[in-house]
Each structure stands twice: as C-alpha cells, then as structure tokens.
What we know:
Layout: E1 9-13, E2 19-22, H1 24-30, H2 34-37, H3 42-45, H4 56-60, E3 71-79, E4 83-92, E5 102-109, H5 111-148, H6 154-185, E6 194-195, H7 198-211, E7 219-223, E8 231-232, H8 234-251, E9 256-264, E10 270-277, H9 307-317, E11 321-326, E12 332-339
Parallel strand pairs: 7-9
Antiparallel strand pairs: 1-2, 1-5, 3-4, 4-5, 6-8, 9-10, 10-12, 11-12
Amino acid sequence: MLPDDLPDGLVVADARGRVVCFNAAAARITATPPDEALGRPVEQVLPLEDLEGRRWWKVTDPYGGLAIRTGQPERNLLLPGGREVLVSARYVRPYRTGPVQRLVVTLRGTEARRRTERSHAELIATVAHELRSPLTSVKGFTATLLAKWERFTDDQKRLMLETVDADADRVTRLITELLDISRIDSGRLEIHRQPVDMAAAVDRHVRAHVAAGRPESRFVRRIVTPLPDLWADPDKIDQVLGNLLENAVRHGGGTVTIEVAPARTKTGDEGTAVTVSDEGPGIPEESMSRVFTRFWRGSKRGGTGLGLYIVKGIVEAHGGAITVGRSPAGGAEFRFTLPAGVPAFMA
Length: 347
C-alpha cells in the first residue's frame, strides 16, 4: 500500500527531524502541498499548538525528551488558523532507549468525531424529551392517588392506574430501543436462531391488531408457498414485524397488505421476503434515502424516530437486507429479505 492510499494523514520525519514522507491526506488536512513539506523541519511543516496555546513540539520534544517514550496518544491539536486536527505520534528507535530514528505522525480531521458527538447529543435530547412526558404522568397520578386515595371512586382509580401502566410500558419500550441502538452501533446485537414460521408470525401480529379494535378487513395476507426453512431470532423478527405493521396502520391508509414469499438474497442464496405495504400518502422520494437513519420522521410521524433504524440493524444482523419504496397503491412499501437454511453448527 502506498502512503497516498491511506485515508489518514501520514507525516514521517527522519533522525534529523526532516520530513521524508507527506501523503495526500496530510496535504489535504494541512492545506500544505507535499513539495513544500518534504525536506523541511517537521515542527515548521506542522506548527501544532494545544488547546491552551502551547507549542506542541516544544512540549513533547520527541528527539530530546525521555528516551523511554514510544510516542504520543491521539489528542486534539490546532493548526494555524485554529483548525482542529486529531494527532498521534510514534517514536521509532533502534532499541528500547536508543535515539529516535523516525518520527511517524498521523493526522485525522475532526468532522467524523463531531458528527458522532452531534448524533449522541441528539439521542440524549430525544430520550430526555420522550421520557419526560410519561414520567411526569406517572409521578402526577401516583402522587395524587397517595394523597387523595379516599376521594376517588374505584373507576377513577382504575383509570389512573391504567394510565400509569401504559406510561410505564412506554418508558420500557424506550429503554429497549436505547439498548438495541447501543448493541447495533457496537456490533454486539446477539441473534439467537431458532426455526421461525414467518406466516404464523404475520398471522399473530394481525390478530393482535384486530383484538386491539382495528377491523380485520383492513389487513390482507398473501402467503406464497412453499416457503424455505427459516432460522432466525423469533423475538427480533416479532420486533421487525411489529414496527412495520404499526407504521403501516398508524401512518399509512386504507388496506395494509402483508406478503410472505420465497426470494433470493443479495448474495443469490435462498431466502424469505416479507413485504408490508399500505395505501396511504407514501414517503416522498427525497426522504427515502433517510428513512432508516436515526430520528427520521415523516411530516405526521410521532415517536422517537428510532424504530426503522433498529429494524434495519436487526435485519442486517441476520444477514438480510431491507428496502423502502412506493406500493402499487401509492403508499409506502417496506420489503425485507432473510436468508434461509439452518445455522452452520447444525449443517
């Protein structure tokens, strides 16, 4: 691999502190052409300061400092003009306490870190907002009941307790979403595979909506058989189906169609595809690329905006894929495909 192929800035100085390597990323980050950097003292090419205004090279002194040091951990430093950059250094010595033969410095822009920090800040703000309402309700009703229990009828007490119970469920769902996001982002989402009957799972979710008071005529199920054997995490699949159906019922319109059919995965393997579509206004074309990102909400959507982000993470953790488009009736259409077959340890 050539230095210019590296995504991060690379600056290498020789035993005299003269720059002998200055790759394209370093030139981009520092706005210094390579031909102006090569052969010059590294402290002139990279006139870095810490956030307190101290000269970094004077503080670290790689060539004249302690002979047992092996480098500098990554930290935020400033280039001329106040541009922030993440810098780390390694001191290459011929033996443990020998003189520095090469100084290797890596540079990274702070944009990615800032995006991550903004995302975390948005998540905290969203969670605080979503938690405030149900917790305020729970606190208000419980305090009222404790202070004035005898003044309320049994029906009034029941109504208050049912509200507290519903708000507690809402808090539990939010905490579950946060845990899922943490596991998805860190690649630690665990999948416990078992045989899953996708057609039965769809029937179960439709029956739950009907039991909740929605007309059965609003749902159309199309099952294309025979379906391949599917090994997946049943709880996670229920989470995906529940989210997609709830979105279609709440934010869509007209008939909600759920189709389960054999399909090929993106790698060409045998799999099962589930399509959930509605007859509502659909999702604008310009928004479709953002549907599976954090905090996406349509113009009339409520909730945290985290559900579809979690759905995508669950599907991909199974080795599948999910897409969004427009249904034949003009509404939203979500389609996810999961690979079939038994786990490797049972093959």
